[in-house]
Structures are given as structure tokens and as C-alpha cells.
Amino acid sequence: MTAGITVDLSDPVPPYEQIRRQLSSLITVGILEPGSRLPTVRSLASDLGIAAGTVARAYKELEQAGLIESRRRNGTVVVGPPPAPHGTVRADAAVIAAVDGLIRTARDAGIRDDTLIDLVRGRLTSKLDS
Known about the structure:
mainly alpha
């Protein structure tokens, strides 16, 4: 499970927010399905080399958003994605794989996440104007 979660300590986005965003995305696109168990706070923190309080904060915010639920004896589980707004389509596996490939390529090239997002927005805008 932690293979999909990374924390970039040089990123200006706080680590808890990086974790929250990544888990939220995985839940929203259906990679983490309802009932999926998340690693314990201590386990994920240890795997990522960060403080347990950082992971706990990310989990707390995800729980407040209704995406996960902490259950005694069952740990923390995915409740489900937020309801999709009318007219939206969930990303399919091919799109997710393409996005993952783009992220890997950008990171290998030393492009920061915020720069990559700006590049994608720029390309989307230029393609819409064509």
C-alpha cells in the first residue's frame, strides 16, 4: 500500500497534505475501494520516515471528509469516494497509468510537482483554445 504514497520533504506542501491528497486521489479514482484497510498510522509513518502525528493529521482530515473511518479492531478503512458531481466520469485504469507515467517522467527530469501541474494546466488550456 505504501508504494503508492510518497512524501517529498523538499516540497513546500506540508507532508500531511501530500499524504491526504494522495490517499484522497486513490480513493476518488477507485484504486482504494470501500472496505480497503489502510496501514496503521505508525506503520505508514515508519515506512515514509516521518512522524506519526503527520500521518494521524492526514487520516483525521480524510475521516472528516468522509473518505475513511477508524474502526476499533479493524483499523482504518476506506468508506468510499465522495459522490461524483453530476456529469463527471471517474478516471479509468489507462488514464491513471498515463498520469503515473507522466509523474515518474517529470520527477526523473527534476520537475517539481507544482511546475508539472502548471505545465498540464497550460497544455489543457492551449488544447481547449485550438
